[in-house]
C-alpha cells in the first residue's frame, strides 16, 4: 500500500511540473528575451517586432511601396523579373509595381533600394520608364536595363497548342 501511495505522489509531482512548464512556455513564446551587453537589464522584444518607420514587418516579407503607399510583399507582385547573366550560385528576383495610370514604375532590386522610374515613351505594343541609369521596357514582357544592358527580364510562360 505504501508503494502505491508513493507512486501516486511521484506521478502527481511529475504531472504538475509538466503542466507548469507548458504554461510558462506558452506565455514566453510570444516574446524573445534579449540580454543587453552593457547592463544586466533584460528587454523583451515581441516576435514580429521588427517594424520599419512605415510599420512594415520585414521578417514577414513586407516592405514599403512609395507608389502604392502601403506595405507590400515584393515576391507576391504580378511583375517579377529574373536576373540575367548571374555569376553567383543563386539567382535573385526584381519586382515592379505601378501607380494607377502606369505613368510611374517602382522597381525593387536586390540591394533593397527601390527606384521610381517615370514613363518616357508609350507606343503601340511598347512602353518605357526611365530614371538615371535604369530603364524598364515593356514589349512582349518586361526587361530592366542598366546603362543600356539587360540585367533583369520577365520569364513568360510558353503557350503550347493542344494536339
* pLDDT averaged residue by residue: 77
The assigned structural class equals: alpha+beta
Total number of strands: 12
Q: Point out poorly predicted stretches.
A: 18-36
- The run of helices and strands is HEEEEEEEEEEEE
Instruction: Report the portion of residues in β strands.
Output: 35-45%
Taking the alpha carbons of the first and last residues, their distance comes to 82 Å
Helix fraction bin: 10-25%
Rg calc: 27 Å
The tally of helices reads 1
Sequence of strands across the biggest β-sheet: 5-6-7-8-9-10-11-12
Q: What about the largest sheet?
A: 8 strands, antiparallel, barrel
Shape designation: globular
What can you tell me about this protein's structure?
- The protein has a domain at 76-153.
- Helices cover 17% and strands 39% of the residues.
- It contains one helix and twelve strands; from the N terminus they run αββββββββββββ.
- Mean pLDDT is 77; it is low at 18-36.
- The longest helix has 27 residues, at 2-28.
- It is of the alpha+beta class and 163 residues long.
Key structural traits:
globular, 1 helix, 163 residues, 17% helix, single chain, two-stranded antiparallel sheet, alpha+beta
Topology of this protein?
Layout: H1 2-28, E1 31-35, E2 42-46, E3 62-65, E4 70-73, E5 79-83, E6 93-98, E7 104-108, E8 115-123, E9 126-131, E10 134-138, E11 142-146, E12 149-153
Antiparallel strand pairs: 1-2, 3-4, 5-6, 5-12, 6-7, 7-8, 8-9, 9-10, 10-11, 11-12
